[in-house]
Amino acid sequence: MVYDIEFARRTPSPALNPVPEPEKTVLFIDFDNTISCGDVLDSVIERFSRSEQWRHWQAEWCAGRISTLECLQRQVGDLEVDEATLLDFVRAAPIDPDFVRLQDWAARTGARLNIVSDNFAPIVRAILARHGVELPPIYANELRFEGRRLVPSFPYRSAACRRCAHCKAVHFARCEGLRTLYVGDGLSDTCPAQRADRVFAKDSLAEFLRDAGRPFIPFSSLGDVVRRLEQDAAAAAPRPD
């Protein structure tokens, strides 16, 4: 997908400071390649597609000739797998072990943690349940199984956004008066990253923000995110006389 970097440059950049108060903070986090180790949805498409057409659609999406919605509709429509087999397959996906530490930080501080994903909710829930993770609110695309065919739906599509199947920025409408943190890695994260007060980014999201001249905090693992949040909290704490 080709994103409008000139638009990003013209959009006012949120400052990295002041450090948000945790109890007044909402943290949104991507799933694939952010919580999960690797892109789970890509592995599903590669494993269960009936043809190699998914590669062509992926290339068309990368070139900006079709939208994320069109790409996912075509790719998921070409899958052939029943629900039990699919969920057994994805449960093997590893996750970043420090996601639990991030949840603990949110629980201790009163920050609200939400997962926002361009993957599908049954897949995200199955992986997290397999790892014994307490499920936070999950906002993702939906999936219905009809035998060995999958029917996708996109409840968080925005008519105002031609880029996304799930425009993750729509969730910021519920956050008026709160500070927003965003953690992500990919092109599906560019819309919310331009709305958040503070952004943790890696991979193609970091490249996009760097090219657009927008501030972000780089990270490699969620352990980096937790350490920075804890450092910020310590620096903001009142000092004794």
Class derived from helix and strand content: alpha/beta
CATH architecture classification name: 3-Layer(aba) Sandwich
Number of helices: 10
Query: Helical percent range?
Result: 25-40%
Q: Sheet with the most strands?
A: 7 strands, mixed
- Overall pLDDT confidence: 89
| Integer count of domains | 1
CATH homologous superfamily annotation = HAD superfamily/HAD-like
> Would you identify the regions where 5 or more consecutive residues have pLDDT less than 50?
1-20
Tell me briefly what this model is.
This protein has helices at residues 5-10, 40-48, 53-62, 68-77, 83-90, 99-109, 121-130, 190-193, 203-211, 222-236, and strands at residues 25-29, 112-120, 138-146, 149-153, 179-184, 198-201, 217-218. By secondary structure, it is an alpha/beta fold.
Question: How would you characterize this protein structure?
Answer:
The chain has 241 residues and is of the alpha/beta class. It has one domain: HAD superfamily/HAD-like (Rossmann fold), CATH 3.40.50.1000. The chain is 38% helix and 17% strand. It contains 10 helices and 7 strands. A 7-stranded mixed β-sheet has the order 4-3-2-1-5-6-7, with helices on both faces. A hairpin with a 2-residue loop joins strand 3 (138-146) and strand 4 (149-153). Helix 6 (99-109) runs parallel beside helix 10 (222-236). The longest helix is centred in the last third of the chain and has 15 residues, at 222-236. Residues 1-20 have low confidence and may be disordered.
